[in-house]
Amino acid sequence: MNEEFVARLKREMSEMGISLTGKQTEQFYHYFEMLVEWNKVMNLTAITEMNDVITKHFTDSVSLIRAVKNPAEISGSLVDVGTGAGFPGIPLKIVFPDLDVTLVDSLGKRIRFLETCAEENGLSGIRAIHARAEDFGRMKEHREVYDICVSRAVANLATLSEYCIPLVKKGGLFAPYKSGKLEEEMQMADGAVKKLGGKIENITEFRLPNGDERKIVMIRKMTATPKIYPRKAGTPSKDPLH
């Protein structure tokens, strides 16, 4: 393994109170190697430089730990909607190996990468599912069954909420990762969150080690989501709830 990679990864994780084992460090390094290699033949990420991958992908993904009151809250079943190259789901799985993780993405090529990545890193209790978010949210076996839903997908909060809140069980959490100004987006999403059975609990603001601003919104599932949501494919993004 690259010594600089190991030193930087361990330093950034320790700043969040996380102590990595040798196995976890190896899993992160192999994940990085696979990401760079597969990215040569398919579009997984625009970020491939080692330090940027560590900070903007790995550390950012695991930053969910900053938003929870107790790390023990990151347990049970977690679904990552619009996971792309596996963020934040795979880094969270590496750090919290007992998590049962489901990765959802609409591109079949990415699913093959995610499955290979999980297999080669010896990650059990993780699956990758090829589906559009709207369709996935209407599948009975996935509806209101997850303890936590996360997403770093680029979409406004109202749209993301319609994709994700239907997946969360009552009492569970939806935690979207956001950057940039959020005030207007939060105001627009407030009504949508309530219609979907959620309640915005708090927003955790922090900076990554490189200075980039990040926010994680914590939305608690209070009541069952009405069966009409999510609406048919394409509607949540074209006509966000309000």
What does this structure look like?
The chain contains 10 helices and 7 strands. α1 packs parallel to α3. It has helices spanning 3-14, 22-38, 50-62, 64-67, 89-95, 108-120, 133-136, 157-164, 183-195, 235-238; strands at 77-81, 100-105, 126-130, 146-151, 168-178, 198-207, 213-221. The radius of gyration is 17 Å and the shape is globular. The chain is of the alpha/beta class and 242 residues long. The chain has a 7-stranded mixed β-sheet, with helices on both faces. The N and C termini lie far apart (49 Å).
Task: Give the helix/strand layout.
Blueprint: H1 3-14, H2 22-38, H3 50-62, H4 64-67, E1 77-81, H5 89-95, E2 100-105, H6 108-120, E3 126-130, H7 133-136, E4 146-151, H8 157-164, E5 168-178, H9 183-195, E6 198-207, E7 213-221, H10 235-238
Parallel strand pairs: 1-2, 1-4, 2-3, 4-5
Antiparallel strand pairs: 5-7, 6-7
